Amino acid sequence: MSVKQLSQMSAKELLAYYQAKLDEEARQAKANGKLVCWSASVAPPELCVAMDIAMVYPETHAAGIGARKGALDMLEVADRLGYNVDCCSYGRVNIGYMELLKEEAMTGKTPEVLANSPAARVPLPDLVITCNNICNTLLKWYENLAAELDIPCIIIDVPFNHTMPVSEESKAYIADQFRNAISQLEVICGRPFDYEKFHAVRQQTQRSIAQWNRIATMSQYKPSPLNGFDLFNYMALVVCARSRDYAEITFRKFADELEEKYKKGESAFKGAEKNRVAWEGIAVWPYLGHTFKTLKNQGSIMTGSAYPNIWDLTYDAEDETLHSMAEAYTRTYINTCLDNKVKVLRGIMDRGKCDGVVYHLNRSCKLMSFLNVETAELIQQANGLPYVSFDGDQTDPRNFAPAQYDTRVEALGEMMDQAAQTAGE
Amino acid sequence: MYTMGIDVGSSSSKAVILRDGSEVVAEAVVQAGTGSSGPGRVLEEIAARSGLKVQDMAFILATGYGRSNLPMADKQMSEITCHAKGVFFEEPTARTIIDIGGQDVKAIALTDQGTIRQFYMNDKCAAGTGRFLEVMSRVLEVGLDEMAGYHFRSQHPASVSSTCTVFAESEVISLLSQGMAKEDIIAGVHFSVAAKACALAQRVGVRESVVLTGGVGQNSGVADAIQKELGQQILVARDPQLTGALGAALLAYEEQIRKEKSA
Questions:
Q1: Interface of A with B in 63-122 (CB under 8 A)
Q2: Long-range pairs for A214-221: beta carbons < 8 A, 24 or more residues apart
Q3: I need a surface site. Which of A56, A147, A279, B196 has the fewest CB within 10 A?
């Protein structure tokens, strides 16, 4: 692909192009005997990218499988291995996928279910890196991967923030975790860590994040040129390529397109934007279209979600103590106390000028869901806006019922209409 | 002006025709819900009772799980809004609604103006729903309409603690095999349903009057258990199965007036 052709692509085309390219690079790396690492979505990629390791992100990969309606096949493999349906479905999809790849590697035959899967083909890892800044399931999940495949597991341990702001001790501890990971990488790679490249990668990461944040600001406008559900799709690159220029290029293009739309007074919707909602929680990937259309059909646009905001990993790339980077990787709102969670979500609702909230009671993500009841009540006390909660799951289609979702979301729409009518009288 | 509300639920289909948004002309209930012959039959039945045809309706509003599958409807709205409307019309003192249908349990808090302040519904679980009672009725070999009679004869209600319908079914079978009186088991089942519904009501905040609606509201044993669980009197809607359809007919009237005004 020539530079000229890339420059002519829309943001949507760039997104698809770079996603495919990342998978291809991982496959090529494997074929050429280079290292491949499977990484947790908010573990710092800066360390591995500095060492030229190809990265694969199981959470994004599982979400993609879910969105392409292929999750059930993988979940059934995990079911057979004894993973309970109460475990995270990203983990179960990924462990199911890993099991199939392993079977293929050991027998030389591709299992039928893998051959027929809509999953993007990614190679088995040579090492894994995980971080508990978004949940503790990621520890056991990655330990299992490492044990099953007999490969190294790098863990970045990040303490939970029971109070905010993040303490200096915590930043120092996490910076030490980074340094420890660097030592592990030197052993795994058999060469000294490339500190110069590490610096450049941190700078690149910040350029990508700046463009990502530029996109998020677009939902402040009325009508909003940004449909919040698009962020769920573009998230793939902030997860998988934030330390590469792929993310920066795509996000800049998307932000430019949105700015253009805003200047023309165009809404993300073809129809009128009747009201604006915040979405709390991970998307329901197997029903992404359905969850979006139910809102769209009633004229509700999603203009605020704390989920994509997790990747606002802004830090000082010049800080060689790595305390600033440590702070960015620990302040993710689900790694903080209830007060801060409420503050973050309220801020997002204010900026997105939201009229109500949809809370996803996600059977897979206990950390994100268990505080929903308290969060919802505290936010409503503060801003008086209606909210609704629905049962669902990020990738297990068996835990979501479209009709149940519709009833709850439509009732929220009617409450928002009622509030608007009362305000207008 | 005639308006019609149709509530097609998971277990039954209901319809109400109103004259000028205030007077009930006809009502009909068929015990078959969405995806069955219920919706068609309820329309035939209400036409027969009222002597009015679909074409005579100025506006038709549909609600319930089958609301999107009724081509004659001018608009669809959620049953939460429709129940609130119907209950407040019949009982203006209502501030808390407990609605127990075939597959949903909901608690709705109303403002003094009758609009929805907040609502909560059951999780993805059949516990405390009409379906839960149907399963128990089958296991106990006691008809749904007979359960209230058994309830009031109970001396020592059993404790049915499982929230999962399948687990509760096992629990009831075990109680039966221990020789416990059906009266006590049934009262225990009713208290189990009441506990689930009251937990939702307590989450929205119980304010008087509390009104019980939905098909399960026809079971006075459940109403009694809810009163005991809440420790206060509750009202049961005149015809608890019909409040959603009544609310839909009222909202249909409001929609038509709004349409005429803006025309």
A1: none
A2: A214/A251, A214/A252, A214/A255, A215/A251, A215/A254, A215/A255, A215/A258, A216/A308, A216/A309, A216/A312, A217/A351, A218/A255, A218/A258, A218/A259, A218/A262, A219/A303, A219/A304, A219/A351, A219/A352, A220/A303, A220/A351, A220/A352, A220/A353, A221/A262
A3: A147
Element containing residue B190 per DSSP (H, E): helix B182-204
**Rounded distance, CA B64 to CA B73, Å?**
12
Cβ distance B116 to A408 less than 8 Å, yes or no, reads: no
Distance from CA of A377 to the nearest CA of B (A): 10
How would you classify the pairing of strands B105-110 and B116-121?
Answer: antiparallel
Give chain B's length.
Answer: 263
Angle at B260 between CA B259 and CA B263, to 5 degrees: 85
Rounded to whole angstroms, the Cα distance separating A235 from A40 reads 14
Q: Which of A78-87, A196-205, A266-275, B175-184 has the lowest mean pLDDT?
A: A266-275
- The ipTM of this complex is 0.83
pLDDT at A3: 56
Whole-angstrom distance, CA of residue B47 vs CA of residue B41 = 10
Residue B115 has a CB neighbour count (10 Å cut-off) of 17
Looking at CA atoms only, how far is residue A172 from chain B in angstroms?
Answer: 43
- pLDDT number for residue A396: 95
Rounded to whole angstroms, how far apart are CA atoms A17 and A24?
11
Number of residues assigned to chain A: 425
Helix (H) or strand (E) holding B221, with range, is: helix B220-230
**Chain A 42-61, CB below 8 Å of chain B: which residues?**
none
Judging contacts by C-beta atoms under 8 Å, the chain B residues touching residue A386 are 116, 118
Q: What is the rounded distance in angstroms from the CA atom of residue A189 to the CA atom of residue B225?
A: 68
Chain centre to alpha carbon of residue B53: 26
> If we measure between CA atoms, which residue out of A360, A362, A344 comes closest to residue A352?
A344
> Residue B241, exposed/middle/buried by CB under 10 A (0-12, 13-18, 19+)?
buried
Longest dimension (CA), chain B: 69
What pTM, to 2 d.p., does this model score? 0.90
Q: How far is A384 from chain B (nearest CA, A)?
A: 10
Closest CA to B67 of B57, B50, B81: B81
User: Tens digits of per-residue pLDDT, A133-185?
Assistant: 999 999 999 999 999 999 999 999 999 999 999 999 999 999 999 999 999 99
Average pLDDT over residues B198-211: 93
- The Cα–Cα gap between A114 and B36 comes to 39
Is the per-residue pLDDT at A271 higher than 80? Answer: no
Averaged pLDDT, A262-287: 90
